[in-house]
Specification:
With 796 residues, the chain is α+β, with helices and mostly antiparallel strands. The chain is 31% helix and 23% strand. The protein is built from 22 helices and 26 strands. The strands form five sheets. A six-stranded antiparallel β-sheet has the order 8-7-6-11-10-9, sandwiched between helices. β23 and β24 form a beta hairpin. It is elongated, with a radius of gyration of 41 Å. The N terminus is likely disordered.
C-alpha cells in the first residue's frame, strides 16, 4: 500500500446489501458522506434512498450481485442537497457464483475530498484480490477481499510467489506512523494483507493525534491563550513564536483540550469550550445544554424529542462587548423549534454545516425563536451546528458562526471541531456525574447528622462539624446528643473506619443503633457491647471507634465507656482542664474484649468536650500532641460554648482537613436541688392518697397549682400500678425542669405496656388514662427494677 502524503484521514464508507437488495449495514462514514443516519437507511433500497443515476442502479439490484463493479457519480446529499462526488466499489461477498443468494459489499469514498487532500485516487485504484494473487478480479465470488491503493510497480507478484505488497507496505507505514514501534508496523501490515481491511481507513485507528511526536522542535509551540470571559470581545490574537505550520493545529487541540478538562464543574467546562473556539475556529460560539443536564434532575437521554427544554449556558464572540447580550443572553431557557437544524443535529447525532446563511434562512431562524433580532448575527455567515454527545447520550448542542469575510468550515476545521466537541461532551458529562456524586454524598451525610441540639434541663449542648476537603470523599464521623429519661443526657462521638459512601452508610446505621439502644437507658458499657455485637453480625467492614457518655444533672455525675476513641476533656468550673483517663477499649466490630464504665463527679458550671481525631491529627502532629494542645486551649474556657467550638476549629483544625472534624461541647449546669424532690413510699394502698397530697403541696410551692389535678391523677395511677404489679421498695421523684417530670420506681421486672381494654376487662385502663393525660410517658429498666415516668408541659 502506498499513500502519498496522507496522514490517515481518508475515510471509506462500507455499506452491505442483503440478497433482496436492502441495506443491512450502514456505518458512520456513510452517514457523514450521504447525510442520513442508520435509522433512516437500514432496510431500504439504495435507489429509494439516494438519487442514483440510472446507469448505476443496476449494480445495486439483486440481478447484478454476481459480479464486481466500480464506478463514480455525483449525487446530492440527503440532508442539505449539497453535491457529493462519490466513487463506488461493489463486490459480492457470499452465495453462489450464479448470483443466487448473494449479498454485496458496497464501498463509497468522497472523491472530491480525496483530491482536495492531495490524494489522486481514481475508481480503478482499489482492486479486489483473491487469495492466490493480488491481481484484479473481473467478476465472480472472491474468497478474500483486499482493498489496497497500489502503484503500478507493485502490482506484480514476486518471483518466489510471496506477496509483493508486504515489504513496501511495512516500509511506508514506518514513514507515515513514526509514533508506532516495529511490532505495531507488523501487526497493521498483517491485518491489511491477511484480513483485507481497507488501507485508506487505517488513519481511523489512530485518529488525529493530540500530542505531536517527540521529534518536535525543542522550543515547541506556545500555549494557546485563554480568551476572556463569555460574551466579551476578543483580540485578534497574540503574537506567536514561529512554529512549523503542521504543528499549529495539534498544539491548538492539545492546549484547548487541556483547558476544557481543567474544571470538574460541567457548566464551567461548557463555558471554556465556547471560549477556546473563538476566535481560532469561529467568531461566535454558543453552547446550549438540555435543562435536565444543567440541573441534573434526570440523566441525559439517548434520543431528543421534537421539543426539549434547553438552557444557553455559554456565549463567546469577538465582536464589541455586549453586542449580542440581548439577542442571545447567557442563561436563557428556551425551546428549540422543531424542524430546525438545531433539533436535527441532536436527533440525528450529526453536525449540520450551512456554508452561507442567506437572508431567507436567517429570517426563518429568527422567526423560529420568536422574531428575535437574530438576522444580523446570521446573515451571510457560515453556520455549524453540532450535538454534544457523551457515552451515547445527548447532552445538548452548540453553534458556531463565522463572519462573512472568513471562509466556511473546511475539512480540517470540522475535524478539529469534532475532536474538541467529543472532549467537551465528555468533560461536561464527567462534571455532571461528579456533581451528582458530591450532592449525593453531602445529602447522605447531612441526613445522618443530628439536627439542633436537644433542649434539656441542666445542660447546654453545641455542635461543630467540618467535612474533609474532598466533598465526594465523605467520612464516617458522627456525633449525637440524646435526651434520656430522668432529665439525663446521652452523648456519643464516633468515627467509622475509612471514607466514602460505604463508611457514611455504616455511620448512619451505627448512629441509629446508638439512639435506639440509648432509649432503653442502658449503662454505657452495656450499650457499647450491644453495638459491638450488632456490628459483627452486619459484616467485617463494620469497624468504628465510639465514646458514649451519660450526664445526670440531678446526681451531677458523668458515666463514660470507650471503644478505642480519643478521650474527652473536662474543664472544671474554675477553668482547670484535664484529659479524662477513660479506659480506651477496642473499636466496635473487633469483639472479644469487655468494655469498662468510668464515673466522674462534676460540678455545676463545668464543661465537657468530645471530638474526633480529625481535630487533633494533622501533618507534623500526632493524636497525643493534638490532645495536649486541645487541653491547653480549653484551660480557662469561657461559658460561651459557641465561642469555644469556633476557637478550637480556628486554632487546631488544618486549613484543608484531610479528615472530617466533629466537636461536641457540653455545659454541665446541673438542676438546682430545690427543683427536685424524692419520696420513699411503703408498698401499701394507703400510700396512694398520701403521695397525691404531697405532690399537690409541692406543685403549689413551685407555683404550678394549675398542674395539680392532672399530676395527682397521674401519680396515683402510677403508684397503684406499682402496688399491683411491682414488689419491694417503692419511690416517687418529681423534677421541675423543662417539663414537669414524675418518676415512679419499684422492684418489679415486668414493664407495663399500653393495651386495649374491653368493656368486661377489670384492668388495662390505667395506662390508657396516663397516655391521654400526659405529654409523654415511658418505661425503662434499672439495676434493681423499673421506672415508669410521665411528663407534663409547664405553663408559659
Amino acid at each position: 500500500m502506498v499513500i502519498a502524503d496522507l496522514l490517515g484521514v481518508a475515510r471509506m464508507a462500507a455499506i452491505t446489501l442483503n440478497e433482496r437488495g436492502r441495506i443491512s449495514h450502514w456505518d458512520d462514514t456513510a452517514t457523514r458522506l450521504f447525510g442520513v443516519g442508520p435509522p433512516h437507511a437500514l432496510g431500504r433500497a439504495p435507489a429509494s434512498l439516494l438519487r442514483l443515476p440510472r446507469e448505476h442502479r443496476g449494480a445495486f439490484e439483486p440481478e447484478g450481485f454476481g459480479h464486481a463493479w466500480c464506478g463514480a457519480c455525483t449525487l446530492p446529499r440527503v440532508d442539505n442537497g449539497e453535491p457529493a462526488e462519490v466513487g463506488w466499489w461493489v463486490y459480492p461477498i457470499d452465495g453462489a457464483s450464479d448470483g443466487r443468494g448473494v449479498s454485496v459489499l458496497a464501498l463509497a469514498a468522497d472523491l472530491r475530498r480525496l483530491r482536495r487532500d492531495g490524494i489522486g485516487i481514481t475508481v480503478g485504484d482499489l482492486l479486489l484480490a483473491p487469495p492466490d494473487g493480488p491481481g484484479p478480479v473481473p467478476g465472480g465470488r472472491p474468497a478474500t477481499v483486499r482493498l489496497l491503493r497500489v502503484e503500478p510497480a507493485l502490482t506484480a507478484p514476486s518471483d518466489d510467489g510471496s506477496d509483493a505488497f508486504a515489504a513496501p507496505l511495512a516500509g511506508r507505514l514506518a514513514a507515515l506512523l513514526p509514533a508506532l514501534d516495529p511490532a505495531a508496523f507488523q501487526q497493521i501490515t498483517s491485518r491489511v494483507l491477511g484480513i483485507g481491511c481497507p488501507a485508506v481507513s487505517l488513519g481511523l485507528t489512530i485518529r488525529l493525534p493530540i500530542v505531536p511526536h517527540a521529534d518536535r522542535p525543542a522550543a515547541g509551540p506556545p500555549p494557546v491563550p485563554r480568551p476572556p470571559g463569555p460574551g466579551r470581545s476578543r483580540p485578534a490574537g497574540p503574537a506567536r513564536r514561529e512554529v512549523p505550520p503542521a504543528w499549529e493545529p495539534l498544539a491548538y487541540l492539545g492546549e484547548a483540550g487541556e483547558q476544557i478538562g481543567s474544571s470538574l464543574d460541567h457548566l464551567q467546562a461548557a463555558r471554556t469550550f465556547a471560549e477556546v473556539l473563538v476566535p481560532r475556529l469561529a467568531d461566535f460560539a454558543a453552547v446550549e445544554l438540555l435543562e435536565r443536564v444543567v440541573a441534573d434532575s434526570a440523566p441525559p437521554v439517548a434520543e431528543v424529542g421534537e421539543t426539549a427544554l434547553m438552557r444557553r449556558v455559554a456565549v463567546a464572540h469577538n465582536d464589541e462587548p455586549g453586542r449580542w447580550d440581548e439577542a442571545v443572553p447567557e442563561g436563557e431557557a428556551l425551546f428549540l423549534p422543531p424542524g430546525t437544524p438545531f433539533v436535527q443535529a441532536m436527533r440525528t447525532g450529526r453536525a449540520v454545516h450551512i456554508r452561507r446563511v442567506g437572508p431567507a434562512q436567517a429570517a426563518r431562524f429568527a422567526a423560529a425563536f420568536g422574531d428575535r433580532e437574530l438576522r444580523p448575527l446570521l446573515t451571510g455567515r457560515a453556520l455549524l451546528i453540532a450535538p454534544l454527545i457523551a457515552r451515547g447520550r445527548v447532552l445538548g448542542t452548540f453553534k458556531l458562526l463565522r463572519k462573512p469575510d472568513r471562509p466556511w468550515f473546511d475539512e480540517l476545521d470540522l475535524t478539529m471541531v469534532d475532536e474538541l466537541a467529543r472532549r467537551a461532551a465528555l468533560c461536561i458529562d464527567n462534571g455532571r456525574l461528579y456533581r451528582r456524586e458530591v450532592t449525593v454524598a453531602e445529602q447522605l451525610q447531612r441526613s445522618m447528622l443530628p439536627d439542633d441540639p436537644p433542649d434539656v434541663a441542666g445542660a447546654r449542648v453545641r455542635y461543630r462539624y467540618r467535612p474533609a476537603e474532598q466533598a465526594a470523599q465523605v467520612g464516617g464521623d458522627w456525633f449525637d446528643a440524646i435526651a434520656l429519661p430522668g432529665c439525663r443526657l446521652g452523648l456519643v462521638v464516633g468515627d467509622v473506619m475509612g471514607h466514602g459512601l460505604t463508611s457514611a452508610a455504616i455511620m448512619g446505621q451505627m448512629r441509629t443503633a446508638v439512639r435506639t439502644l440509648a432509649t432503653d437507658d442502658m449503662r454505657p458499657d452495656r450499650l457499647l457491647r450491644r453495638l459491638d455485637g450488632l456490628a459483627r453480625r452486619l459484616g467485617e467492614d463494620y469497624l468504628a471507634t465510639c465514646l458514649y457518655a451519660v450526664y445526670d444533672p440531678v446526681e451531677r455525675r458523668c458515666t463514660f465507656a470507650n471503644a478505642g476513641h480519643v478521650p474527652p476533656v473536662l474543664v472544671s468550673a474554675d477553668g482547670e482542664s484535664r484529659v479524662l483517663p477513660v479506659p480506651s477499649g477496642v473499636p466496635i466490630g473487633v469483639g472479644g474484649e469487655p468494655f469498662e464504665t468510668m464515673e466522674v463527679k462534676v460540678d455545676d458550671g463545668a464543661q465537657l468536650v468530645l471530638c474526633t481525631d480529625g481535630l487533633l491529627e494533622r501533618r507534623g502532629r500526632d493524636v497525643e500532641q493534638g490532645l495536649e494542645e486541645l487541653r491547653a486551649r480549653l484551660t480557662g474556657a469561657s461559658a460561651d460554648l459557641d465561642g469555644t467550638c469556633d476557637d478550637l476549629l480556628d486554632a487546631l483544625a488544618a486549613p484543608r482537613p484531610a479528615d472530617d472534624i466533629a466537636i461536641v461541647a457540653v455545659g454541665l449546669d446541673g438542676i438546682p436541688g430545690d427543683e427536685v424532690v424524692t419520696w420513699e413510699l411503703e408498698p401499701e394502698p394507703a400510700s396512694v392518697p398520701w403521695i397525691r397530697a404531697q405532690v399537690s403541696s409541692r406543685l403549689a410551692g413551685w407555683g404550678l397549682s394549675g398542674l395539680g389535678d392532672t399530676a395527682q391523677v397521674l401519680v396515683s395511677e402510677l403508684v397503684t400500678n406499682a402496688l399491683v404489679h411491682g414488689a419491694g421498695s417503692l419511690g416517687v421523684r418529681l423534677i421541675k425542669g423543662r417539663t414537669l417530670l414524675c418518676e415512679v420506681h419499684d422492684d418489679g421486672t415486668d414493664l407495663p405496656h399500653l393495651r386495649h381494654a374491653d368493656a368486661t376487662d377489670e384492668s388495662g385502663r390505667g395506662l390508657q388514662l396516663v397516655h391521654h393525660l400526659a405529654e409523654r410517658w415511658g418505661t425503662h429498666r434499672t439495676d434493681t427494677g423499673k421506672i415508669v415516668w410521665v411528663e407534663q408541659r409547664l405553663p408559659r
